[in-house]
Recover the amino acids of this structure.
């Protein structure tokens, strides 16, 4: 046993000393696979093709036509997102694609480095090397790889939120990062719960102000499209895609596959939602109490993915911060923590959702959803709930004062502290 542990430590040291080379090799291998077996970045086509319609008044009538199981991909984001995407339309397609993926890989590195900064006091541990290694490994997790293949925006928004919270020294910077991310895509708005739970009142106000300013700007540019989105389309989940498909890894999607027609609004749905909410609140309370910034952020982001009506598997790039916390956070040698980390690795590195979706496309057309596939299709939800339990029960309150982005200590009464 000791020999195995010693060999593991030796391998870990060897990789740490060559972290930059590991990331370079991982990126090169990804680039090679993208050239040999190119994907269809349909989401980037929606962003690039739809954005100019913001000015002509047809933004939400635009769609990219594909094939089953989701034959039509309309533009579903707020008008401010279209405003940001507009420059993409001026670039040649190949240039836009390479640039988008390069920036997304950089955002993955910001996501890993920021997660470790939230976990580790500045100057403590080997943050740079660990960030490089996690980014190298993260490229091969299904939500990250799917995001890159589809030309999705998840990594950019995740990097913006985590980078802002971990690296910005001012409340304005941290709040603006969350507010702007939520202005592009609504789901990052759950980051506001993190700011409120950690008593960053000024940052929460800045997040609200940034989101409002972005919305007003888009409204001034295109009042008709803004009115249409915020008064009717914002709650229309039918434009996003079918709830029952295994590609949807939300709580509602899992229950719909298990129970039959859309389970949203049923008594069992409300019961499950209440239990998940209690588990997430317990996890968030425990993380805040022990001054665990990464744990608190993971709790709110996983909760947001669970309760959103549709959370495609590529939305779950928050598996990376979750796995970082499980691997390096307080109480990391607890058995339940290791089980949770192993399950995340199995679901994400094993590409469970895409494998099930291929079977679904070939065999599941109508009638009850196959029970075995329905249970297997709960993978992300199970990982999230298990992580809540680990967050709630694992680790003790930190006794030392940890530095925070504002340059003050966690015990100080300031906007950047966890317990002010």
């Amino acid at each position: 046993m000791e020999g195995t542990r010693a060999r593991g430590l030796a391998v870990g040291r060897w990789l740490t000393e060559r972290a930059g080379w590991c990331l370079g090799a991982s990126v090169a291998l990804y680039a090679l696979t993208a050239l040999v077996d190119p994907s269809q970045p349909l989401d980037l086509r929606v962003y690039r093709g739809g954005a100019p319609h913001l000015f002509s008044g047809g933004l939400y009538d635009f769609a990219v036509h594909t094939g089953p199981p989701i034959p039509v991909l309309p533009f579903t984001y707020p008008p401010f997102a279209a405003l940001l995407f507009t420059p993409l339309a001026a670039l040649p397609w190949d240039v836009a694609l390479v640039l988008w993926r390069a920036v997304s890989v950089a955002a993955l590195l910001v996501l890993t480095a920021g997660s470790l900064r939230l976990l580790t006091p500045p100057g403590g541990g080997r943050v740079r090397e660990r960030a490089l290694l996690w980014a190298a490994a993260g490229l091969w997790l299904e939500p990250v790889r799917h995001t890159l293949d589809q030309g999705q925006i998840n990594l950019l928004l995740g990097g913006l939120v985590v980078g802002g919270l971990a690296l910005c020294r001012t409340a304005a910077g941290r709040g603006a990062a969350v507010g702007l991310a939520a202005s592009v895509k609504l789901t990052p708005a759950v980051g506001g719960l993190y700011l409120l739970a950690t008593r960053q009142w000024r940052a929460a106000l800045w997040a609200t102000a940034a989101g409002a300013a972005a919305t007003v700007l888009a409204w001034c540019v295109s009042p008709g499209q803004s009115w249409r989105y915020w008064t009717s389309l914002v709650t229309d989940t039918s434009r996003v895609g079918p709830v029952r498909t295994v590609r949807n890894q939300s709580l509602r999607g899992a229950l719909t596959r298990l129970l039959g027609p859309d389970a949203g609004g049923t008594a069992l749905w409300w019961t499950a939602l209440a239990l998940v909410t209690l588990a997430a609140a317990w996890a968030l309370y425990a993380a805040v109490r022990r001054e665990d910034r990464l744990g608190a952020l993971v709790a709110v982001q996983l909760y947001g993915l669970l309760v959103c009506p549709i959370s495609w598997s590529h939305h779950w790039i928050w598996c990376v911060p979750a796995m970082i916390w499980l691997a390096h956070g307080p109480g990391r040698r607890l058995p339940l923590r290791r089980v949770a980390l192993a399950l995340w690795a199995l679901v994400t590195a094993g590409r469970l959702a895409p494998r099930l979706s291929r079977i679904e496309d070939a065999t599941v057309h109508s009638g009850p959803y196959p029970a075995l596939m329905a249970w297997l299709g709960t993978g992300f939800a199970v990982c999230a709930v298990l992580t809540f339990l680990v967050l709630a029960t694992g680790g003790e309150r930190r006794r030392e004062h940890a530095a925070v982005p504002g340059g003050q200590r966690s015990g100080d009464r300031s906007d950047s502290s966890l317990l002010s």
About this structure: Strands lie at 63-65, 72-74. Confidence is low (pLDDT under 50) at residues 399-420. Residues 93-119 form the longest helix (27 residues).
